[in-house]
Write the structure tokens for this entry.
Amino acid sequence: MIKDETLIGEILSRYPESAQIMEDYGLHCTSCSVNAYEPIKAGAMSHGLGEEVADELISKINDLAAAKAKAPADGIYVSERAAKKIQEFSKEEKKEGFALRITAKDNNDMEPAYAMDFEEKPKDDDKVFEFHGVKVFTNPESTKNLMGADIDFLETQIGSGFKITNPKFNGSSGGCDSGSCGCGTGKGAGGCGTGGCC
């Protein structure tokens, strides 16, 4: 459980998706070096949030933590925000009700090469996950490479896209070189490239 005195850096490390919640509340210090030493409530209030709003922010992060606790230990976690975007993109591509296939191909001991696309039915050896009304298919190789990963959708001042935070590759939430990747949204959920980013 996140408390008033929990450090922002610790929250971001445990719950990378909380960065978007903080951004939504106007707390834009998620990538600054001070967040490793700044308690969440004091940090929020020092950035102009009132006490009630700071408490609401902490409550939202605790809701996220509770949802993540229900995710399978041998699988992945898809945030509610990402699930909503998956539904939006599937509708745009006239594939409403389809699942999202996430592929994570081995990449010579580096972060996997990710790809996303919509698919109607799973293959025989697929693992099927369901989050917030959205199904996700992964093949055995991808399931192994994504185990413990968080999938979120971020909207920041510099762009928006899906973000995969993979603990097997440093577990941090930053650029592609630090264990995560952002999948752009130019054309739905597809179009992912190699080298850990989409």
In short: The first strand starts at residue 77 and ends at 78.
